[in-house]
Design goal:
This protein has 195 residues and is mainly α. The protein has helices at 3-31, 33-36, 46-59, 75-88, 90-93, 117-120, 124-133, 149-161, 167-177.
Length: 195
Amino acid sequence: MSAGSMVRNVLQVIGGLALLVVLAGAVYIGFFVPGRGFSAREGPSQLEELIARRARALATPTGTKEMMNPHPVTKEALAAARSHWVDHCATCHALDGSGQTSIGQNVYPKAPDMRAAATQNLTDGELYSIIENGIRFTGMPAWGGEHSPEDNWQLVMLIRRLPKLSSEEMREMEKLAAGEGGGHIDAPGSKPHKH
């Protein structure tokens, strides 16, 4: 078999797989959406979750997945991240990262539990990319134009810490949420932005 015919065969297989995916999507939309509608009250189906996770992986910029957090984990960086989390993330993701808020549970798809394996198994670069660029067709905004890269890397640090937050850290975040902690701490050199 010549190289040209091998390439044609591979392209035919890829084309066939792409056609199957499109047809499966059309069948899904044709049969399941009319009965469910597009209500944000529903949880995504397993097919939707599979497609969304795959699309997110494909949309992650090249080389991002391999990125490691360039900033050291320090008490000061985690304190700044907790303050930032309270101001910008807890509305949907909750102080503890559970996603159990009225907004987090009423968007579609629902805000994920940031402590769960589905989030914790993402690389630092993937988490950073999600914070920086957001996720289309979800409630996740892109914070890259609003905050410095250091701010966003600090949030990656905090996301890694969420499964093991201490009671002291939770109390500090509760105080910040109640307006007792002095508000958000911006990193030196970050762009001015509203809170």
